[in-house]
Write a structure and sequence with these properties.
alpha+beta, HhH-GPD_domain, Alkylbase_DNA_Glycosylase/TA, 5-stranded antiparallel β-sheet, DNA-3-methyladenine glycosylase II, EC 3.2.2.21, DNA_glycosylase
Amino acid sequence: MSEPLTRDWHHDYPLDLVRVLAPLRRGSGDPTTRVEPDALWWASTTSLGPATLRLRRASGGTVRASAWGPGAEAVLEGVPDLLGASDDASGFEPAHDVVTRGVKAANGLRLCASGRVWDVLVAAILEQKVTNREAWRSWRELCRRFGHPAPGPVEELWTVPDPQQVRQIRDWEWHRAGIDGARRRTLLAAASSARSLEKAVVLRGEEGRNLLRKIPGIGPWTAAEVAQRAWGDPDAVSVGDFHLPTIVGTALVGHPLDDEGMLDALSPYEGHRHRAVRYLAAAGVNRPRHGPRLPARDYRAF
């Protein structure tokens, strides 16, 4: 194993590493991430190949980053954006007490920007119209069976399969991973256009989301989920989410809403609507618990 490339990066704002990078983690068993008492690990794909990034706190507001693999230089270059350095909250003002409470609770919250569409797009497609439990099981299957073992010193860390690896997955293996035909077709369509989709990070905003939506099977929800993570889009609302209108409505107006009502309730935060949603989560707002949990389906049993 070669020695890692390293970089020390100083931040001048409160930084909660775990909170900032939480959107990139798909469940506690995510094979692409690892949280340790003194370090965070993230395995990713890059245009140059797989990379592993380790982040550790050093003294004086410094984060020490180490990276392994063909994509090591790329992930080190992206550390500031990954940790929220490009996140601009200018113009954001809490218009509700619950959002104010979230701002106070979320000291150190920044919107991360991974700089990579592909990794977060695969996960978002897997999460379409299924429970998190189902999606995260499929995510683990794909990464461990078809991704790259992450370069570096950590065992049992994997990257998401790159576009070429996804195109090589055989039909029965999709079924074994619990992925239905609709999501499989969307993943294959995205893999065929993966290089052009990375341009969304440069376009950003609505233009970037619209580029993603050119792929059949990618709608407003998936595009927003990618935008939130790939370029830290502060205004990307996950329209079409099963629970979000209920969460936002209950928090801001006292009752559940539909998508149109949710957008109306979030209108005071135009330009920062996703940021407002993150602060609601930081304030501890969640959907009311009524009735049994939706059971997870196992497509491998069909």
